[in-house]
Design brief:
The structure holds two protein chains of two kinds. Chain A has 16 helices and 18 strands. By secondary structure, chain A is α/β, with parallel strands linked by helices. Chain A is elongated. Chain B has two domains: 6-58, no CATH class; 62-135, no CATH class. The radius of gyration of chain B is 20 Å and the shape is elongated. Classes of the chains: A alpha/beta, B alpha+beta. The interface between A and B is medium-sized, with 20 and 22 residues.
């Protein structure tokens, strides 16, 4: 046994070849709040990694004539004045491999879930220029989130960037968890980037995904609230680097940035400490570029360039519903649409609290399947009209029949779009429910019985409209024959339900 | 207001004192000292002086190399080193500053400006340790 160890050690030492090279070094002049000012390091590049004597890594951000401003990625308490800083010649990169799936890693790609090391096959730079126009193709395949309000009214396509925006505690994270859970069997890899979140929240989220069987296709990148701002700053870029690794294999990836408001705050902290001039709300001048270069990396590649896509769900937390603040307006203008969650709706019990009027998907409709397009085409307009009429009807009861009908339909639509957390609905089931709603089959069902009706209908139609289901699930088709069968199934179910 | 870098100040001092006679130089240096005092830059004087000596060396085609070793270097090694460094840095003159450091365990460590060429045993052992303890 001991002989074996000695032999192995000998072999390892024989294999070791030392290539001495000229190293560029600098000396620490100042250390404060995670920032290190270094003299020397004459040929350093922007975003180049440096090493400190205690083994910590840093990234060069400010390159000036005399000094280099470096952010420390880790514990800076042991770095002292006069310490030697070595340039590595490498731009900030993280290790990636297929075995990263199902793991929780920090912003440097180091596992923090206690499940051992991840054997890396490659390293990917965290900063990369977004794919060019030639390599892209337009969005045409849907991302099924399993949330009726989103899939029907604000559809998202593969390669799209859809912002989720709302106040605290309005269910932003709940939506993305449901979306991740619903990707099971959808040929999608999910990357959840947690920025400045509480560790307890992350633990809960991880357990939820594990219980739902979603961790096998998910990676969690975490920069916790207790970690330095530098980690929060690089975490989304690390996440997208992991996503790009899978996209380069032609896979579809869904990446969630939870949330970019905290990311902007972390960047503001770093920028102010680096003495960069503050602008509006004390954010630095390049805060728009901070997010635009990140979100531009979400794309759908054409077949010639290997296919694959990155769909991004950035999250922004607003203060008292103010979407006209600096960061929300920036990110709204960068993304291809937004899902606006409202605290008032949330407290009214309308969950997910999606404000259909303010939410929009600019490119997603072309990715919607034909059946969904057919049944949900007028839903957004109907709901918007319902909200208008609802406010108007408060003033009097003398309403004409068509208005009353519209109000009743609207109430049922709101009820249908309500959904429990962690209960994503399959697309085909959504189509059935929305068909029954828009064709007026639910008009005489009492509002409080809508949920019961919906559950029963799905169960009944699955058994009695097999042709319809086959067409939708397998061929993504909508035929008259299928529609007839569905119509009959709904009518049959309704007659038994009314009894 | 744009801040003046140490390099800017060192360059200015060099330009002002270049080609000046002894008496003129003392006036210039006096004014420089007053300027540093007025602008509260005296705390940065060490850094400014080191920049200044770098500029002077550069202008005069001199390179200062700090050589660290465990034992004193013999004449032959020094000449050999001088030749090699002259060639590498394309300079007229190389000034070797010797430094004895027992922690190196053996070998040499050459420091020129912000470049380090580390042939010491300590560095090799460190690299071997990194190699043997790497994550597989």
């Amino acid at each position: 046994m001991s002989n074996n160890i000695v032999e192995n050690l000998k072999k390892e030492i024989d294999n070791f070849s030392l290539q001495l090279k000229i190293e560029k070094v600098g000396k620490v002049m100042e250390v404060f709040d995670g920032i290190v000012k270094v003299s020397g390091l004459s040929d350093i590049k922007s975003s180049e990694m440096v090493t400190f004597p205690n083994g910590e890594m840093g990234v060069a951000l400010n390159i000036e004539e005399d000094v280099v401003g470096i952010i420390v990625l880790g514990d800076f308490s042991k770095i002292k004045e006069g310490d030697e800083v070595k340039a590595t010649g490498r731009i900030l990169e993280i290790p990636v491999s297929d075995s990263i799936l199902g793991r929780v890693v920090n912003a440097m790609g180091v596992p923090i879930d206690g499940k051992g090391v991840i054997k890396a096959t490659k390293t990917y730079p965290i900063e990369k220029v977004a794919p060019g126009v030639v390599t892209r193709q337009s969005v045409s395949e849907p991302v099924a989130t399993g949330i009726k309000a989103i899939d029907a009214i604000i559809p998202v396509g593969r390669g799209q960037r859809e912002l989720i925006i709302g106040d605290r505690q309005t269910g932003k994270t709940a939506i993305v968890i449901d979306a991740i859970l619903n990707q099971k069997g959808q040929n999608m890899i999910c990357v959840y980037v947690s920025i400045g979140q509480k560790d307890s929240k992350l633990r809960k989220l991880g357990a939820r995904l594990e219980a739902g069987g979603a961790m096998v296709y998910t990676v969690i990148v975490s920069a916790g609230a207790s970690e330095p701002a530098s980690m929060s700053y690089i975490a989304p870029y690390s996440g997208v680097a992991i996503a790009e690794y899978f996209m380069d294999q032609g896979k579809d990836v869904l990446i969630i940035y939870d949330d970019l408001s905290k990311h902007a705050v972390a960047y503001r902290e770093i920028s102010l400490l680096l003495r960069r001039p503050p602008g509006r709300e004390a954010y630095p001048g390049d805060v728009f570029y901070l997010h635009s270069r990140l979100l531009e990396r979400a794309c759908r590649r054409n077949e010639k360039y290997g296919g694959g896509s990155i769909t991004a769900f950035p999250i922004i937390e607003t203060q008292a519903g103010d979407i006209s603040a600096y960061i929300p307006t920036n990110v709204i203008s960068i993304t291809d649409g937004q899902i606006f969650l409202e605290a008032d709706l949330f407290y009214k019990g309308i969950r997910p609290a999606v404000n259909v009027g303010s939410s929009v998907s600019r490119v997603g409709s072309s990715a919607q399947i034909k059946a969904m397009k057919k049944v949900a085409g007028t839903l957004k307009l109907d709901l918007a009209q319902f909200r208008e009429l609802e406010a108007f009807s408060q003033f009097g009861s003398d309403l004409d029949d068509s208005t009353k009908k519209q109000l009743e339909r609207g109430k049922r639509a709101v009820e249908v779009l309500k959904q429990l957390q962690y209960a994503p609905v399959k697309t085909e089931h959504q189509v059935v429910t929305l068909y029954a709603l828009t064709k007026g089959f639910m008009d005489d069902v009492p509002v409080e019985k809508i949920k019961e009706f919906e559950a029963g209908l799905i169960d009944y139609s699955e058994r009695n409209a097999k042709v319809f289901y086959k067409e939708i699930v397998e061929f993504k088709m909508w035929t008259e024959k299928g529609e007839e069968q569905l119509k009959k199934a709904i009518a049959d179910f309704k007659s038994s339900f009314n009894k | 207001m744009a801040t003046i870098s140490n390099n800017d100040i060192a360059r200015a001092i060099f330009s002002l004192s270049k080609g000046k006679s002894h008496s003129e130089l003392s006036v210039v240096l006096n004014k420089v000292a007053k300027f540093l005092f007025r602008r509260r830059l005296l705390s940065k004087s060490t850094e400014i002086l080191s920049r200044l000596s770098q500029i002077i060396n550069q202008e005069e085609g001199r390179t200062v190399a700090k050589i660290s070793s465990v034992e004193k270097l013999d004449h032959k090694t020094k000449t050999h080193l001088e030749q090699a460094l002259k060639k590498r840095y394309s300079t007229k003159e190389v000034i070797l500053v010797e430094n004895l450091d027992q922690k190196l365990l053996g070998g040499l460590k050459i420091e020129v400006n912000d470049e380090v060429i580390d042939f010491s045993i300590k560095n090799r052992v460190g690299k071997l340790q990194e190699y043997l303890t790497r994550q597989i």
